[in-house]
Amino acid sequence: MIRAVMRRSPLARLLSILALLATAALVAACGSQGNDVLKSASASPDVKAGSQLFSERCSGCHTLDAVGAEGSATLRTDRERVDGPNFNQRKECVANVLYALANGGYSGAIMPENIVVGQDAKDVAAFLEKYSGSQVSVAAGAKPVTCPPSPGG
């Protein structure tokens, strides 16, 4: 009698498998469009490494199309205290990124300090300097953000 209750029809098994596959596909695609930088022939090894680190450690709170990161709020009504800047709309320079990484952002209250350190931090900074600000528009008469040359580069 117990055996009859535990048996599933072939249709029920098939539906269970299809549901699992659909869930796995959604989870795999959730919040990520893919890291285009890793596929780029023009990106240097440090920028590629920085893109991977950014994707792994920063994409939950920051948005940047180059790596498929969608962590920032897109609507003013959806914003939360922990939403990081949208780097499509904000240009960054190496020195500023290194400061933010070492100090937990600029407020020091939300972003984890030292989420990446050493060469990893330099790689993330190089990546952000190259790819951030892709959607920044410069007002008439305003100067675009330009980054000073990085030390050693």
Q: Cα-atom Rg, whole angstroms?
A: 21 Å
Number of strands: 2
For the record, the CATH architecture of the domain at 36-131 stands as: Orthogonal Bundle
Order of helices and strands: HHHHEEHH
Largest sheet: 2 strands, antiparallel
Measured by DSSP, the beta-strand proportion falls in under 5%
Widest β-sheet, arrangement of strands: 1-2
CATH C-level class of the domain at 36-131:
Mainly Alpha
How far apart the termini lie comes to: 75 Å
Find the CATH topology of the domain at 36-131: Cytochrome Bc1 Complex, Chain D, domain 2
Give the structural class: mainly alpha
Helix content: 40-55%
Shape annotation? globular
Low-pLDDT parts are: 21-32
Task: Walk me through this protein's architecture.
- The chain has a domain at 36-131: Cytochrome Bc1 Complex, Chain D, domain 2.
- A hairpin with a 4-residue loop joins strand 1 (63-64) and strand 2.
- Helix content is 43%, strand content 3%.
- Helix 4 crosses helix 6 (118-131) and helix 5 (94-103) crosses helix 6.
- It has a two-stranded antiparallel sheet with strand order 1-2.
- With 153 residues, it is mainly α.
- Mean pLDDT is 79; it is low at 21-32.
- The protein has helices spanning 2-6, 10-29, 36-39, 45-57, 94-103, 118-131; strands spanning 63-64, 69-70.
- It is built from 6 helices and 2 strands.
- It is globular, with a radius of gyration of 21 Å.
